[in-house]
From TrEMBL:
Organism field: Candidatus Kentrum sp. FM
GO MF: DNA binding; transposase activity
Protein name in the entry: Transposase DDE domain-containing protein
InterPro entries membership: Transposase_11
GO biological process, one term: DNA transposition
Domain Transposase IS4-like: 6-54
Length: 82
């Protein structure tokens, strides 16, 4: 089956997200430090890493609304908005 230029473009466009995941996963989530001879343990470690990454991704918009200590003029977070 031949790949259309549109399919190739879509696949290449997703490349950045995949590379970001692997770089972040290896450096921050220790996805490359798992050493086990049990395949089930390694699969569980990867599942845990993917869940952690997903939680961080979902929490990013909320974290942007919380002012950092040096941001005095930023509007304070209020739970009544939710």
């Amino acid at each position: 089956r031949e790949i259309s230029s549109r399919d190739a473009y879509e696949a290449y466009r997703q490349r950045y997200d995949m590379e970001h995941f692997f770089r972040f996963g290896k450096s921050k989530l220790l996805l490359d430090d798992s050493q086990t001879c049990e395949l089930e343990h390694e699969e569980s470690w990867w599942e845990l890493g993917c869940l952690a990454y997903t939680q961080l991704w979902l929490a990013a918009p909320l974290a942007e609304k919380i002012p950092r200590p040096w941001e005095k003029n930023k509007q304070q977070f209020s739970s009544s908005r939710w």
